[in-house]
Amino acid sequence: MKVLVTGGSGRLGGYILRDLLAHGHTVSSCGRTPPTIAEVPHISADIGSLESTRQALAGQDAVVHLAAVAHPKRGTPEQITQANIVGTFNVLEAAALEGVGKVVFGSTEATYGFPFSRLPVMPRYLPIDEEYPCEPEDEYGLSKLVGELMCKRYSAACGLRTLCIRICTAWHLDRAGTEIAVRSGPWRKAPKAVEELWGQYREQLERPEGPFPIPGPAAPRHRLWSVTDARDTAQALRLAVENNSVQHGVFLTTGDDTCSCEETPALIARYFPDVPLRAPLKGYATLYSNEKAKRVLGYRPQHTWRHGDFSDWMERGSH
What structural domains and CATH numbers belong to the chain? Predict the structure, then answer.
């Protein structure tokens, strides 16, 4: 398939570009800056402009829409609305006008309202699934929820296939991929060291209550200890591209475990003793259900922070 990735130059963009290429797709990246993957063609475009977006999408079979302001404190409410809501409208409208068959929309767990709430939110039940009410307090989560609703509208009104992937805290845990990620997105002008980023992950493991410097990550306690290896997030997005059975759908895609050193039953006993459980949660089981993505898309998380390059770095004393 010919697949265009908006935001391909971002931190997650490199992972999905490489995954699509590895599975035989013809891939282009769209945005204001070229991707760090040299073999991927760059289409210079501004998704804030419908005409520019139409030109970028012409001749594509599918688009993975990742371009966004990805944190409520990385832009003003106006900037987030323009980039995330108007930009998503332009991608959907351009896809409909240009005959692109499918849009895979990069959404987020922030649609539920947990990560960036002013105070920790008590869940109605666990694990969180796609039927759980979405009540975001912040502009970022709200903008993504609006994006999901626009996707549903374009599927119903225009016949466009739209699959919304709720990405749950993608961590860069393999050294090769992280070396690219730290030179991408907001870090392009001032690249981080791999160890600096991994040090931030280690701090989240050690201080789950936070707080962390703005616009840093949501504290693990606030986001219910969600974590996904970026390679698995890329897998989910690619499977959505390849799916031919869904007209419109929303899918939670998280890793199979938490980013906690404490087992999940102990976390629940401490923080959520009265919250109803709709499924057994043993060991380090995630508090977000990825069962729908597994059943419908064939999603299978392959990685965890507990094993691999990041874990090896932790065991060596983080040096």
Answer: 2-173+223-315 (3.40.50.720)
